[in-house]
Specification:
By secondary structure, this protein is of the alpha+beta class. It is built from seven helices and nine strands, in the order H-E-H-E-H-H-E-E-E-E-E-E-E-H-H-H. It has one domain: Jelly Rolls (Sandwich), CATH 2.60.120. Bound molecules: 2-oxoglutaric acid (AKG). 2-oxoglutaric acid (AKG) binds at residues 97, 123, 142, 158, 203, 205, 216, 218.
Length: 299
């Protein structure tokens, strides 16, 4: 049984590789997040001397503002994440993406071409995830939160290739296997929509030919025994105010313990690899929620 993913969402997630959730963020939350994104964008662009019309990204975004931190266990999307990938997880990356309108010539580049401004790719470390039986094993999901209106074609929306998480990323730019245009889905959504997706999905962006800057946030969750991409440990100040679930999501142990390798000097064992029951507050929480659901406590 799953907590929130319906059977048809689960099927879509398995077959297409993504599920859209409209109105995941209230208009008030969207407004607040846009304010935060604008402030961080202004501050860091200035600090790093980045042109106002260049695309800009902040990584480990959750550490940059309380509003961005709060999204790691969002009440609607986080249960879906656990339904999709299980409870022994942590954040792999969090990023804030700002994409101002781009030069009109970008529209002449074939969508996602290797030499275009944003080529088709699937997420993975340098040298790639291992490809097994022609596909990347299921190791990660991301939640994208879209803060600006992307309902028009060519406003900078992400495009995904349905079902491509079941294919080898080595084939992405293979001229022998061009991408079937019928499988390309441009994520034309309203502000406040979220997308839960498998990051093995091939994806790229349309050029932003609108007059508005596109703003969005992404949170990647993967198994806890893999290393995160944009932090190893968060700051003590941030960790000090986390709930047990949040601590787990930031890769930490029960109560903030630091004995990541256990206590036996002769037989060290990673508590990420072999977590103790108390190291899995996400599992405890999830099981409680499932029980409540079974008993009719939550719908
Ligand atoms: O939507 C975006 O701006 C970038 C998405 C992306 O490429 C990613 O999250 O890996």
């Amino acid at each position: 049984m799953s907590l929130v993913l319906t059977e048809s969402q689960q099927r879509q997630f398995d077959e297409d590789g993504f599920v859209l959730v409209e109105n995941a963020l209230t208009p008030d939350t969207v407004d607040r997040l846009v304010g935060v994104v604008n402030d961080l964008d202004t501050r860091y662009r200035k600090m790093q001397n980045i042109a106002p019309d260049a695309a800009f990204q902040v990584r480990n975004a959750l550490a940059h503002h309380e509003e961005l931190f709060r999204l790691i266990d969002h009440p609607v999307l986080f249960p879906m994440v656990v339904d999709a990938i299980g409870p022994n997880i942590q954040i792999r990356t969090s990023h804030m993406d700002v994409r101002p309108p781009c030069p009109a010539e970008f529209a002449n580049q074939p969508l996602g071409a290797k030499d275009s401004f944003f080529p088709w790719h699937s997420d993975g470390p340098d040298f790639g995830y291992p490809v097994t039986n022609g596909a990347v094993p299921f190791v990660e999901v991301k939640v994208g939160y879209y803060l600006t209106d992307l309902s028009e074609h060519n406003a900078g929306a992400i495009c995904v290739v349905r079902g491509s998480h079941l294919m080898s990323p080595k084939r992405i730019h293979d001229p022998e296997h061009p991408i079937d245009p019928a499988r390309i889905f441009e994520v034309n959504v309203k502000p406040g929509t979220a997308m839960l997706w498998r990051t093995a999905l091939w994806h790229c962006l349309t050029p932003n030919l609108s007059v508005k800057t596109r703003k969005c946030l992404y949170y990647g969750y993967h198994h806890r025994w893999i290393r995160p991409a944009d932090y190893l440990h968060q700051s003590p100040e941030l960790l000090a105010r986390c709930t047990p679930v949040q601590l787990q999501l930031l890769g930490e142990l029960n109560g903030g313990a630091k004995n990541y390798m256990g206590d036996d000097p002769v037989h060290p064992i990673s508590r990420h690899w072999r977590p103790r029951e108390e190291d899995l507050p996400v599992k405890t929480w999830y099981e409680e929620q499932l029980k409540l659901k079974e008993n009719g406590g939550i719908r």
